[in-house]
């Protein structure tokens, strides 16, 4: 799946549930990291969407240290916008 398709999928409520189920599944860590990598440079944007906010949490849990650092870095870049959302306490 192309990165643009993954991004479109997590912006959709049903699509984000599918991605979350995959990240919580018995799929290999390598497959999960490959999917999470396609969201790089979009973690903050995805977190701002109600359908994508929980997906970021699942991505964080499913990936390695370097990807976790990327997620945190991108989340910090949008922290002021995140603080204005109903999901602010989650982050």
Describe this structure in words.
- The chain has 91 residues and is an all-alpha fold.
- Helices cover 70% and strands 0% of the residues.
- Helix 1 crosses helix 2 and helix 2 packs parallel to helix 5.
- It starts with a helix and ends in a 9-residue tail after the last helix.
Q: Which features does this protein show?
A:
single chain, 91 residues, mainly alpha, 7 helices, 70% helix
**Element-by-element helix/strand order:** HHHHHHH
So what's the overall shape?
globular
Number of DSSP-assigned strands:
0
The largest pleated sheet is described as: none
Based on CA atoms alone, the radius of gyration comes out at 12 Å
Number of helices: 7
Distance between the termini: 28 Å
Strand content: under 5%
Element layout with pairings:
Elements: H1 3-10, H2 13-23, H3 29-37, H4 43-48, H5 50-62, H6 65-77, H7 79-82
Helix pairs in contact: 1-2, 2-5
Describe what is shown at a glance.
With 91 residues, this protein is mostly helical. It contains seven helices and no strands.
